[in-house]
Amino acid sequence: MAAFAYRAVTTAGALRSGTLEASTRADALERLRNLGLTPIEASPSTARPAAAAPRLGAAGRRAMINAVSELAVLLGAGLPLDRALAIGLENAAHPALKAALAAVLTRVKEGAPLSQAIGEAKGFFPPMAAAMAEAGEANGRLDTALARLAETLDRGEALRQAVTSAMVYPALLMVVAGSVILMMLLFVVPQFEGLFADQQARLPFATRAVLAASHLLRSYGWLGAGGLAAAAVGAANWLKQPAARLALDRAVLGVPRVGALTKAAATARFARVLGSLVEGGVPLPAALGIAQGSLGNSHMEAAVARVAAGLKEGGGLARPLADSSLFPSMAISFLRTGEETAQLPLMLGRLADVLDRDVRTALDRLVALLTPAITVVMGAAVAGVIASIMSAILGFNDLALPS
Predict the structure, then answer these.
(1) Cα separation of 363 and 161, whole Å?
(2) Bridge partners (DSSP) listed for residue 39
(3) What are the angstrom distances between the C-alpha of 70 and each of 74, 143, 159?
(4) 64 near 124, Cβ under 8 Å?
(5) How many angstroms separate the CA atoms of 189 and 261, rounded?
(6) Helices (H), 35-126
(7) Residues 3, 20 contacting (CB under 8 angstroms)
(8) Hey, how many other C-beta atoms are within 10 angstroms of the C-beta on 253?
(9) What is the DSSP annotation of 214-242?
C-alpha cells in the first residue's frame, strides 16, 4: 500500500485535499469516488508517513461516543462550534481522545469545516463521522447529524460489547481447565515416574501415554512454546496480505453456526451505519462505500464494493446483494421493501434492530452449548490423566509380581 495525495470536490462543491492509502493510483481514485468525492488529482505522496494513530480501546470508544453526543447537545443549545469543541476538550479524560479533540479544535479555528477536521484525525473517529458531519453542514443541521451519529455508534458499541461479553466465560473456562492439565503434567505426574520406573513395559497404555506426554512437555515444552509464538507471528503477518485475509474471512462464513452468526452481526452493523448515513443526507453510493468498512469481513466488503460500483451505473441494492448469497434472507427482504416504498433508512434501522436481537439470542444459545461442552471435554481430559495414574497404582501389586 502506498500513500497518495489527492484533491477532490465534495457533493456540496467544497474543495478537499488530503492523503489516503491505496495499491495504485486507479484504486485511489476509485476509493475517492466511493466516498462521494469527485477526484481532481491523485499522485504518490512524497511526505514522510505519519506515525500510526493509537487505537482506541473500549474505554476510548465510549469516551469518543460521549464526546460526540455532548457536542451535539452543545450545538443544539446554540453554542458556536469552536466553543462547543473547547468545552468537549475540557471534559475529555481519555488522553488519546483529548489529543484528537485538540487537533480538531485547532483545525476548526483555522477555518476548516468540522467534517474535514474529523477526517484528518485518523484512528480516532470512524469514516462515517466525517461523512455525517459533512451532510449536517450541508443541510444546516449539524447538531442533529452528530446526535444521530452518536446514537449509531452507541448501538454498534453495545453489540460489540455483547459479543465480547458472551465469549468471556467460555474463554476463561478453557484457560482454567488447560492450566489445570498443564500443572498436572508438569508437577503431579512426574512424582510417579520413579514408582513406575522398573515396570514401564507392563504399564497400561493410557499410563504410558500420560507419562510420555509429561516427559515431552518438561523436556521440549519451551520449544513448543517458541514454535507456537513463531506460528502466531507468521499467521499475523500472513493475514496482513489482502488475499490471505480474504480467504480466511470467506472460510469463516462457511463454518456452521459461526458463519451465520458472523453474517448476522456484520449485517446489523452495516445496516445501522448505512441507514444513518442515508438518513443524514449522504448519497447512497457514497454511503455504501463508507458503510462497507463496518462489516469487518473482507469477503462481504468486496461484495458491497461491487454493488456500490453497479449502483453508480443505475443498478439496484437488494438484488445484487441477494445474488452475492452473503447476506441473510431477512436483510434482503427488508432492503427490497425499503427500495419499493422509498423508506430505505427506516427499513435499515428496523433491520439492524431485528438482527441485533437475533445476534444476542444466538450468542446466548451458543454460550449455552459451549459452556457444558467445554466443561465435559476438559473434565474428561483431567479425569483421563487421573484415571491413568490411579489404574497403574491400583494394579501396582500385580505389576510387581514376577512373570
Answers:
(1) 12
(2) 8
(3) 6, 10, 22
(4) yes
(5) 41
(6) 58-76, 81-91, 95-109, 114-120
(7) yes
(8) 18
(9) HHHHHHHHHHHHHHHHHHHHHHHHHHTSH
Please, which pLDDT band fits residue 14 given cuts at 50, 70 and 90? low
Q: Show contacts of 14-19: CB within 8 Å, 24+ apart.
A: 14/113, 16/116, 18/116, 18/119, 18/120, 19/45, 19/47
Q: Is the dihedral of CA 86, 129, 250, 331 positive or negative?
A: positive
CA–CA gap between residue 218 and residue 216 (Å, rounded): 6
The secondary structure of residue 57, as a DSSP letter, is -
Q: Which residues contact 126 (CB under 8 A, 6 or more apart)?
A: 153, 293, 294
Cβ-count burial of 381 within 10 angstroms (0-12 exposed, 13-18 middle, 19+ buried)?
Answer: middle
Cβ atoms 39, 6 nearer than 8 A: yes
* Sequence letter at residue 114: L
User: Rounded distance, CA 177 to CA 30, Å?
Assistant: 50
Mean pLDDT of the chain: 81
Contact 52, 14 (CB under 8 A): no
User: Which residue type, as a one-letter code, is found at position 224?
Assistant: G
Residue 356's identity, in one-letter code, is: D
DSSP string, 16-55: EEEEEEESSHHHHHHHHHHTT-EEEEEEE--SPPPPPPPP
Half-sphere CA count of 333, side-chain side, radius 13 A: 7
Task: Confirm if 299 and 249 have CB atoms less than 8 A apart.
Answer: yes
Q: What angle do CA 26, 32, 37 make, to 5 degrees?
A: 135
d(CA 260, CA 62): 28
Q: State the Cα–Cα distance between residues 403 and 397, nearest whole angstrom.
A: 12
Sign of CA dihedral 30, 35, 38, 42: negative
Looking up cell 456500490 gives 308
Beta bridge partners of 41: 7
Please state the separation of Cα 276 from the chain's center in Å.
Answer: 19
Q: What is the pLDDT of residues 311-351, one digit of tens each?
A: 776 677 888 888 888 898 899 999 999 988 888 889 998 99
Q: What is the pLDDT of residues 33-57, one digit of tens each?
A: 766 677 777 777 654 444 444 556 7
How far is residue 278's CA from residue 286's CA, in Å, rounded to a whole number?
Answer: 9
